[in-house]
Each structure stands twice: as structure tokens, then as C-alpha cells.
Amino acid sequence: MLNIKQKEKIIKSYQDHEKDTGSASVQVAVTTEEIERLALHLKKNPKDNHSRRGLLKMVAKRKSLLDYLSKNNERKYNSLIRKLGLKK
Questions:
Q1: Are 13 and 51 in contact (CB under 8 A)?
Q2: Collapsing DSSP states into helix, strand and coil, what is residue 18?
Q3: Which domains does the chain have, with CATH numbers?
Q4: Cβ–Cβ under 8 Å, residues 30 and 10
């Protein structure tokens, strides 16, 4: 789980305007960071199936947000993918 300062830092780097905290690009960036942290946890604790289920749900949510972005704003989608280092 991200603490408040880390989450604010991610939001500031991906927001479209000053009060933007919930746009699809911000949600994808925050979810990606949480996925990376949870993946590290699961490498250390391979039998933690409860957390593995949460990870799979996060990956599915990120995919649906990325699909939404690719349909509605192709330019923002491509720049976000490049910034986060994700595959298409």
C-alpha cells in the first residue's frame, strides 16, 4: 500500500491540471505503482494467495482503464505507456 506522500507525488507527475486526481491516466499510474509493490511482496511470499488475488484484480482494473484511454485518447494512451514502461 502506498503512503499519502508517495501517492501525491505520483498524482502530481501524471495529472492533467491542478485539481486532477481521478483521471484515467492518474489511476493507471497509481495502480501500476501498487502492482509493482505487490509483485515484490509475492516474490518474497509465494504462498500468499490472498494477495495474489488482489494483484490479479489490480491488473484487470489497469487493463480496463488502459483500454478506455486507448479508445478515447490515443495520444495520451501512447505517452502514458511510454512513461510507465508498459507493453501495448
A1: no
A2: coil
A3: 22-84 (1.10.287.10)
A4: yes
CA separation for the pair 28, 65 (Å, rounded): 7
Specify the residue for cell string 497509481: 30
Helices (H), 15-48: 24-44
Grid cell of 88 as nine digits: 501495448
pLDDT grade for 2, boundaries at 50, 70 and 90: confident
Q: What mean pLDDT, rounded, does the chain reach?
A: 95
Cell numbers found for residue 56: 490479479
Q: Are 15 and 21 in contact (CB under 8 A)?
A: yes
> Per the structure block, which three cell numbers stand in for 33?
505503482
Alpha-carbon distance of 79 to 82, in angstroms, equals 5
- Span 7-34, pLDDT tens digits: 999 999 999 999 999 999 999 999 999 9
All cell numbers assigned to 40: 515484490
